Amino acid sequence: MVRRPRKHDRDYYRRHIYGRWNPETSSGVWLENHVYQQLMKDLEYLRAHPKNANPEEVLRLLGRIMAAWKDERGKFQDVMKEMIQHYKEAVSVIEQDEKEINSLRQVIDQLEREIDQAIKKQNEIQREIDEIKKERRKDQELAVEYRNKAVEAFNGIVDDIYFKKYASAQLVEIESLLNNMDRLPLGDQALQGLAVECLGKIHATRQDVERKKAEFAMLHAVVTQQAKELLEQFEKWRDDMYFDNEEEYPSKHVDMGFWSRGYFDELMQQVRELCHRLETAPQTIGYMPEQLKEDMTTIVQLRKEGEEVVEDVLCMSHQSEMMEVLGHIAAIILAEEYFFRLIFWGYNDNDERDSFVVQMLNHTCENKIQLIFTPVDKTNSICLYQFCVGQHHDEARIQQLLNSLFNEFGLNGITVRQQGASASRSIVESLEFTKPGNTIHLPAELNLLRATSE
Predict the structure, then answer these.
(1) Could you give the count of Cα atoms lying within 13 Å of 91 in the half-sphere of its Cβ?
(2) In whole angstroms, what is the distance from residue 199 CA to residue 151 CA?
(3) What pTM was computed for the model?
(4) d(CA 370, CA 356)
């Protein structure tokens, strides 16, 4: 708490009344200066020595004292008026200064407000800058993150055989986008967009590949099952076909390769190759559903051809037996009715799939006859003949013999055909017989099967 000044505190008056002006050092006359002290000393002396006091001198002293006081009061009043004037001027100056100070204070307050607003705006700008920097850092982090995710996702599919098979073009496109991310000077947001586009393409490609893979798998399962069943069927045809199936214990196995002249083996090899190809089909690039559909068509065709081959083989074996039976019947007719003796019979080149040849001789007239029984289709066959006359060459007699012979053959289901356009071409001057135990080899003009195949 501030101390209240006392009246005898001269420093207080000097500071606040005299304005730091010291009356003791002033040239003017003031109370408590040395003049006043001298007068007081004289007065004290007279009071102390009243006997030495002269009334007139006392009055004069009092007069001086009163005059001094009056003079002092006048001077004091003048000084105070001057001081008051100075104070007024000072107050005016102070008031003016206060106005300026107030004005300056208002300016300062305005500046402070503007500074506060500027600081606030600067802080806001700084916050926005920090937010932008934060967003940029976030954009950078997201760009790097998305780019890494895109690269990781691409690395996860680029070596996948199914993607190479079903989406090779998409892989090239995605790889180009990844290269652009590393090669082009892109901004963070542009890089994010490119990475997101890559991820989107990868996701769409993955779905497309999975769909195509599933479609292929379903079709592949069906085709593979059909191919396996077809191979099993071919194996059954190869291993379980017998000529004597009606017997309780069949023993006459059908050699499909032999009777089909190797065609059955070729078909079966095609089926094996198809099955092997189907095993690697899911991972084989370029092996698409279209190829599976072609394989299905091939399976249908191979099954059809296999069935035809089996049917042809059975018919051929039956025809082979029929040719031999017809040859035996013809030999019996010639022997019993026309007194011919059997010289040779057997298959051409000793092959049951070829023509069956019967060679017979009539010793009485030295006539020779050669019958060639050849199948022409699955159920029919014909018989070619060559006739060689002996010593007696009577064409009418020969023709009558042949007509009688062919009529007898017809009654037994044997159809005979001349070798050429006329009967004269079937009647030859000489006819070489094959010795028993040897193999006959027909010339090309008599090999009807070879001529037909050519």
Answers:
(1) 5
(2) 9
(3) 0.59
(4) 10
